[in-house]
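[Help] Beginner question about ligand-bound structures

Sorry if this is basic. My supervisor gave me a protein sequence and a SMILES string for 2-acetamido-2-deoxy-beta-D-glucopyranose and asked me to "get the holo structure". I don't really know what that means in practice or what format the answer should be in. Inputs are pasted below exactly as I got them.
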Amino acid sequence: MLWRPLVLAAAAIAPSVDAAATLRFSCSQLVVDRLDPLVNPGMNPSPHLHQVVGGNAFNTTMDPAVHDLPTTATCTSCTPVEDFSNYWTATLFFRARNGTFKRVNTFGNELGFTSAKGGQTVYYLSSGKVTAFKPGFRMTVGDPTFRTAAQLNAKYKYMDFTCLASSMTRGGQTLNFPTSTCAAGIMVSIRFPTCWDGKNTDSPDHQSHVAYPNGNACPSTHPVVVPQVFYETYWDTRPFNDKNIWPTDGSQPFVWSFGDNTGYGIHGDYVFGWKGDALQRAMDNNCNSDLFANQINCPTLQVQSLDQANQCTIKPEVNENLDGWLTELPGGMPIM
Ligand SMILES: *[C@@H]1O[C@H](CO)[C@@H](O)[C@H](O)[C@H]1NC(C)=O
Ligand SMILES: *[C@@H]1O[C@H](CO)[C@@H](O)[C@H](O)[C@H]1NC(C)=O
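Answer (accepted):
No worries, everyone starts somewhere. Holo just means with the ligand present. The predicted complex, written as structure tokens, is below.
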């Protein structure tokens, strides 16, 4: 049962089983900031709040022509020291019965990464030969405007919520926010498509240069198999499990920072920033990771400790109050 998400994810990629990489590692919180250099480059502040991990070259503008992540960054919050990529998602808020909001923190994945200071777990999965991303590559998955399961199912796959009864809970995933309390927090899983057009490192919607496979094969328009990038974020909803502060109508109280209280607007952002051929080497060497420890079985990658990764942080560019009980979501995002 424990392995199910991994097996499912890998099975979604390609039929060959002669080689497989299940690279899994921790990336501590780099910053929580209202920036989105991919969807809203140059905009400070951007419309909604994000939690960001990875290299410290993350900033308001990350033009690939002038902002090379491996040479601009001086540290990374991920444990592989050659990974200066940035990975980000929206943040969660709890909306109390009285209508005020409290930001929900991320916490270290309890399978191996308890001492990580928040952030998320990142996976690169493959089954068979894959081509690593090229410098400047970036993509998003999901649509923050979606509010129904039908919308989500029609366009995206493999993004869901797990209501953690314990840190070991796997299974029972939903496409919407869990509707009752989750004793050990909420895990959000975001998996990106695995087929690339082989030409464009980005596209106007940041999505159409990648595609999902049809069955096991990549479509002819997007023939190049890339690693499956997969985020797992542990949200610490445990302080909000008192039903006496939940809405009186019994509805669930969590809301994405972009005003979505359904969960269907789930989305993630990725900017590739591995140094040199490090990711290709890791994939070619079928690197894998111990599920229960901060251990990457991959002699070709140099890995730092969680303590070292925790030390890579940056100051938010946007100066706004994110803590305490807020009368509105950052940026005044309406709930709709
Ligand atoms: C982000 O860019 C601003 C403006 O160029 C710069 O002052 C700041 O140091 C940068 N932040 C980081 C973390 O590099
Ligand atoms: C709103 O509710 C929260 C949770 O019960 C509480 O901590 C906070 O003080 C309340 N704020 C106001 C303005 O009543």
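A couple of things worth pointing out: Residues 1-17 have pLDDT under 50 and may be disordered. The longest helix spans residues 4-11. Feel free to follow up in the thread.
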